[in-house]
Amino acid sequence: MTAAEQESPGRPATRVDLVTFGETMARLENPVVGPMRHARSLDLGIGGAESNTAIGLRRLGATAAWFGRVGDDEFGRLITTALAGEGVRIDHAVVDASAPTALLFKERRSGTLTRVQYYRTGSAGSRLDPADVPHALIRSARVLHVTGITAAISPTARAALDDAVETARDAGVPVSLDLNYRSALWSPDEAGEALRDLVKRADLVFATEAEARLVVAADDPAGLATGLAALGPRDVLVKRGAAGVVASCAGTLHVQPAHRVPVIDPVGAGDAFAAGYLAEFVRGRPVAERLATATAAGAYAVTVRGDWEGLPSRRDLELLKSTEDTVTR
Amino acid sequence: MTAAEQESPGRPATRVDLVTFGETMARLENPVVGPMRHARSLDLGIGGAESNTAIGLRRLGATAAWFGRVGDDEFGRLITTALAGEGVRIDHAVVDASAPTALLFKERRSGTLTRVQYYRTGSAGSRLDPADVPHALIRSARVLHVTGITAAISPTARAALDDAVETARDAGVPVSLDLNYRSALWSPDEAGEALRDLVKRADLVFATEAEARLVVAADDPAGLATGLAALGPRDVLVKRGAAGVVASCAGTLHVQPAHRVPVIDPVGAGDAFAAGYLAEFVRGRPVAERLATATAAGAYAVTVRGDWEGLPSRRDLELLKSTEDTVTR
Amino acid sequence: MTAAEQESPGRPATRVDLVTFGETMARLENPVVGPMRHARSLDLGIGGAESNTAIGLRRLGATAAWFGRVGDDEFGRLITTALAGEGVRIDHAVVDASAPTALLFKERRSGTLTRVQYYRTGSAGSRLDPADVPHALIRSARVLHVTGITAAISPTARAALDDAVETARDAGVPVSLDLNYRSALWSPDEAGEALRDLVKRADLVFATEAEARLVVAADDPAGLATGLAALGPRDVLVKRGAAGVVASCAGTLHVQPAHRVPVIDPVGAGDAFAAGYLAEFVRGRPVAERLATATAAGAYAVTVRGDWEGLPSRRDLELLKSTEDTVTR
Amino acid sequence: MTAAEQESPGRPATRVDLVTFGETMARLENPVVGPMRHARSLDLGIGGAESNTAIGLRRLGATAAWFGRVGDDEFGRLITTALAGEGVRIDHAVVDASAPTALLFKERRSGTLTRVQYYRTGSAGSRLDPADVPHALIRSARVLHVTGITAAISPTARAALDDAVETARDAGVPVSLDLNYRSALWSPDEAGEALRDLVKRADLVFATEAEARLVVAADDPAGLATGLAALGPRDVLVKRGAAGVVASCAGTLHVQPAHRVPVIDPVGAGDAFAAGYLAEFVRGRPVAERLATATAAGAYAVTVRGDWEGLPSRRDLELLKSTEDTVTR
Amino acid sequence: MTAAEQESPGRPATRVDLVTFGETMARLENPVVGPMRHARSLDLGIGGAESNTAIGLRRLGATAAWFGRVGDDEFGRLITTALAGEGVRIDHAVVDASAPTALLFKERRSGTLTRVQYYRTGSAGSRLDPADVPHALIRSARVLHVTGITAAISPTARAALDDAVETARDAGVPVSLDLNYRSALWSPDEAGEALRDLVKRADLVFATEAEARLVVAADDPAGLATGLAALGPRDVLVKRGAAGVVASCAGTLHVQPAHRVPVIDPVGAGDAFAAGYLAEFVRGRPVAERLATATAAGAYAVTVRGDWEGLPSRRDLELLKSTEDTVTR
Amino acid sequence: MTAAEQESPGRPATRVDLVTFGETMARLENPVVGPMRHARSLDLGIGGAESNTAIGLRRLGATAAWFGRVGDDEFGRLITTALAGEGVRIDHAVVDASAPTALLFKERRSGTLTRVQYYRTGSAGSRLDPADVPHALIRSARVLHVTGITAAISPTARAALDDAVETARDAGVPVSLDLNYRSALWSPDEAGEALRDLVKRADLVFATEAEARLVVAADDPAGLATGLAALGPRDVLVKRGAAGVVASCAGTLHVQPAHRVPVIDPVGAGDAFAAGYLAEFVRGRPVAERLATATAAGAYAVTVRGDWEGLPSRRDLELLKSTEDTVTR
């Protein structure tokens, strides 16, 4: 086995299973729970919904490419280094020397509450432009994965999003959409309209219950899933945290419970879920397997601090079934 | 500019300037100077003479590929992640599930003394085999860079070294050799014989004065450089630490002083020097420029803890000329 | 809004809602659970029951002043810096050059057990003297808050306590008393007598069940609350940890359950409870609101390491009602 | 009281309650839960089943000696320093200059799962030899404690194990055996045969249910205990984690529940259990007391990170009965 | 002595020696020298030229007030907490809920080079407005201290600067100006014009040689000092780092050498110098004493990491004269 | 070689080369240079002039015993654990349950200045009593080592000092005295008288120039050495830091230069010097060798943080002669 064949290689894949794009940020968070101003130091990493999902696919053996803009600064270099290190193709990522890389501060305020603050106004990532979209790459992918965040960060980014989605549709590449509503970026009304338009053009849709309600009205998760599916997508996944997931896939309802694990950091669970689902989707696996891997990936993500660091490899998925508390590798 | 065009991209280069190989290890060192047993924790990183040099070239804008074996463990994954993150191609690196990744402990015993201990007996890296050598890759390179360490770690590794060198020579690819004598691996006598044989087949040779004396006898650095050059290599670089370098290049002697910088960690200076020299060599730059970049890279490497973390980008080289102590980027 | 109007300003208030005093100590604790001798470093902060409560009031928008003695050393400066930083008025704090600042070691021995060791014999704080009592300040306050600890640390401190209490009573300023029994400082018998005398002169009394039993005999929390109230105080709060609180306020019994939160550090919960209660008391809010804020403040305090660092602002109190696990500020 | 009379003295005991031996390793683990390659530093300590148990006896007031081989390196010195510091006699420990000290990496992969990797092939500890066995010391002990690990690490170590056991039996010294099966060292079949042979020669046997099944077949813990006892040992302890222990002691079955404590690190619980049991055994205490101390010691061990650091003193055992969450010492 | 009378009190002074204002930022820097992207965590503090100087005066026993805008976020609270803790009056500081607090990243790139990156575009601090200027406070001060940075961050900030300077001049309060050129904020030409205008209205001027050349042309430091003084200021201080200072004070030239100290962090030396000079100026001390305290304060500042943390108290100034390397306090 | 035969064994020696006693303290210091109140955590260790010297002898292969009192707390256990771990015999150390272990705070105020604060009033160590003196142990030693500190900490400690010295003299055991003047404990006049009396009864005396002047008057180091020797001691060592040492040994003057090393922490250099000298003295080595080892040990001590952690083994002494900056062990 070459290093490139295991879960975190760096080898350039000739063909890419998943293409995604968006804004990835430097992430700074307090190492000890409490008000951030009492921290003497902040841990440094990276985070971004789309690149988290790309890493998730790589860990599970699929290939992935990410594009977007970063600043010509240490934080931009941190992002490209981390993604390349995880084996995500970044050959279409752009270094924009005229704007800084965006920042994401995570304040772990208590064991169960995280507060988030962005420094992303005018950032390099929000300057994403249709000219940055690599059409050939998208056309060759097994799936294009986008999120609602990109529609919210700037008009040029939304134009790039439209361009990418249309490119995929024209080429018959399935479009995966995670609604990912961020209240700091737009209002529920603005978001509702834009997301509804995106859902109509998507083949797979991921949403929390609250996000689903921005687009459709329904009393319960099953109603939300059905309502979204009625807009066009073949697969709709309504995520309910510890309560599991309700899915409408090719017209059939599925209910999948969540794993019971000690939650250390809930951020990134949604991206992990999408990664697990899509990792099986690109391999052509059936719905039951997609849901199983998606919930397992979500479970792994929340047991480790960091948005993506705890994402599982195929071997890690085996461990979740173990009853032992100590394993010799 | 795309991310791949700046100093630490992840984009797969279609053609590779430098190919190198050898054993890269997980590196553990005490964060505070003193006996290692008084440390409560050890800092974790990676190190390996050849991969350090490959990273050095990437930072300076050249492309590089590294191959070798790592274990199927977290340390192996750390190595492939770090190298891919720095944009070094690792598609020919091998994961050997039957042996662990080697370890390198660096004990910073005082401000001026470092003690090194290896756990590399029977390691994955020492199981490198001629079957691992990627002939096409080597044939397409602008230079093949090897070190004496590979000749010392195992018979199969030495066979792989011979195979790689012959492949390069057959294809007209220049061979660069850093003698890199390690007393823990073999005796001066064993080393002397093997290194002499390698020098004869090399086009560029890097050596400290002590290493040069393993191969040739001479009274002074100039004599050592001339003596080594007489064995065949076009360029011979005799490194003298703070005293600079004496070189014999295409029959002409050059003397280059070192930069005066505060030394924090001397480990890695030689690899940085080679990287600086080769980064200009592959661009076809004249000897004066090669020597200037080599000494600047060496100066950067010693001002930062870590074997390769402090290696400079082209922009960093500019800073060395600055008289300011604070720079706004 | 000026900085002074938000929850942690530094602006000198012209009038002070709460005046308190006592011994505040430098606090050192092991960052990782286990026997303290295995710690390689100890975290440094400050702690003192009275100053914790003063900070609690500031966070909730009230004004507060603290006085007491600290040594002319780095620990004394740490205390005055931290209190002034939190906006607690310290203009009557005294620097006593003839004695050191007291120390408090907190050994987190297991997830549920904390051991405490003091270095406070002969400390600057225990040299508090009636001459240090600022009569005008006390007379202008909305409430004077004292604890039983001050009665125990030295005869001069007890004399100062008596002086302050009598000054408040003469001026019609309500006296708040937290029994705060410390077994390292005096015996149950000594404490019982002294505390009984203080309860008789107080308007508000805070006590755990065990502390209440030092003063009155009763079978259950309600009996303890009623028994203490019979000695004179208008409001008596009997704290029962996770079991909530039983209060006798103006002759009426109230029962308030505690919030269910993950406990990280139980130290400081009582001081937070008193702060929450008094923050509403000085605003003239009704009993139900006082109890609600008191239990919410107690809940916040235990979710964060440190005696006071986790005390909530008004905005934080809102978060306790949130069902989200991630909030964008 | 002299320092030597309290729980962690350094005074050489004239007579030793427990003698044990085996391989003790330097232990490196990630401080924050997650994949080890994401750690920037690893915490350094020591660990070894037999020396953990020796420390456990010292903490509980008994005397103990450990022997085995360590390398002539910082890790060997760390081991001898730590054991001597805990008051374990190491006068028969051997420094073997021709091999390195073994390493143990503990990867805390999630809140409930630990992965272990060894670097112990060819280690100093595995070179233990019958010539290292101190016969006089063993003959003077109250109990000899061995584990199945020693039978697995090398043929010479197994020969030393046989020699020690026979020496004890000849001298009428009871032999205590903890099966301690390690899958990385041998197969279940190899282990089953060797362990069965050891059980027959032991007086006290400690085993998990899974380990017991390597030697005897039975449906339930009681059957396993009875089955092992039928092979010869007077006391057999079948450990069931949070489900407590089932014991067959002198022909009588005992069932002891476990304490309910928050588990931080399960590694070392078995060694602590053996230490608690043997600490009472060497004092001639009855079975009920042995089981009580054993389960209490096991409870303490899991509440603290580290294999032995959290082992309790006699005073700590008292704390387990406390209902307070803060104690002043 | 009360706490308010020593060097870091929190007591509100009835009259303020120095009033200053500007933008203070949260400061994040890598704890270990090297490229910032290799840091796993960044140390958190605050920094701002004007507030650094205010703290410097407080440490030396003078009183000081600072105003400016901070965001309604943890970084804003960190700034107000730190300044209030150091005894700087912040009652006119403004919390601006519509913009974030600015950030300052310090990358310690090598032992002698620091790179700085700002996130201050659109920050709360740059929204400073003439309406924020507290005229009464300025009129009551002994000196108003401003820097050229405020002229550069925004038009409203420059208007506030003009308003404050005119208010001081009208009231006969001396104006102190530190040129503090920041190349990231404006061009040399823009700065030259604006600073020249400010110099004309100032009574005391602090400048490096390079900064002085933005305003006047001269061959040497003495020429620069004389040239600036010719524009109007009574005292002009031209700072030359390790080469000391050349001053033109009331028409007389002074040359003061620098102290020889090991430099750990050069940032903040200029602010410390100004603080030392002004601390003596407000006490009416002669020029020689002002220069002596200024150079001593500058020396202290560079021996400690952080922009202001190492600023000396009066007692610390005594230590600089000590020949001992260990002092018992 | 057994572990007990190398430099840090734990084996109880049957005979002890050096016996010493005094007060050993828990040591807390700021990890980053600057005012201690800005530290977020303090590093924890132990320190004491006499026990430092005892450890120094152990590292150099001699045997040593220390006695004194520690509190029945974690700091006392830290001290006994650390000393026993270093192989120092502590069987006559006493745990005094009625007083706390003393504390020593080291504030690294700048690169060249350390401030020290004690919490030792009423400490366990100062309660040392003649009844604690182990007469048989002293009579069997090759040298008794005492310091002037013990004469200063309490009347009972001084009585114990007298008892120990007389016991040694009666038994013909040489008495070694390090003057070790501490200004926090007594005045120069008090100290001068007491130390003069001790010098008269000592065989070997260690003093800095300033300490020597407390006892005798002389113009230069040679005069001081001669003057002290005239009071009785055979060997007098006058230490001059980087200027080396001047000694009067058996009537002959010796001058020994110091090694040139980068100084990280000057504390402990004197104890290391005494250890080096005495390690050769107990082996009967000549003066030149004693001085060489003494200065080498002093050089090692200052290159590492901590009072004793950097003390050299015999092997380390060899390294001081090395010209390499990297050594493979």
How does this structure look, described?
Six copies of one chain form a homohexamer. By secondary structure, the first copy, chain A, is an alpha/beta fold. Chain A has a domain at 16-21 and 49-77 and 85-97 and 130-310: Ribokinase (UDP-N-acetylmuramoyl-L-alanine:D-glutamate ligase), CATH 3.40.1190.20. Helices cover 35% and strands 22% of the residues of chain A. Chain A has helices at 49-59, 74-85, 135-139, 148-153, 155-171, 188-201, 209-215, 221-229, 269-281, 287-302, 314-319; strands at residues 18-21, 25-29, 41-47, 64-67, 69-71, 94-96, 103-110, 113-119, 143-147, 175-178, 204-208, 235-239, 245-249, 252-256, 326-328. Chain A starts with 17 loop residues before the first strand and ends with a strand. The model of chain A is unreliable at 1-13 (pLDDT under 50). Strand 3 (41-47) of chain B pairs antiparallel with strand 3 (41-47) of chain D. Chains A, B, C, D, E, F: Residues 18-312 form the Carbohydrate kinase PfkB domain. Chains A, B, C, D, E, F: Keywords: Kinase, Transferase. Chains A, B, C, D, E, F: Belongs to the carbohydrate kinase PfkB family. Chains A, B, C, D, E, F: This is Sugar kinase. Chains A, B, C, D, E, F: GO terms for molecular function: kinase activity.
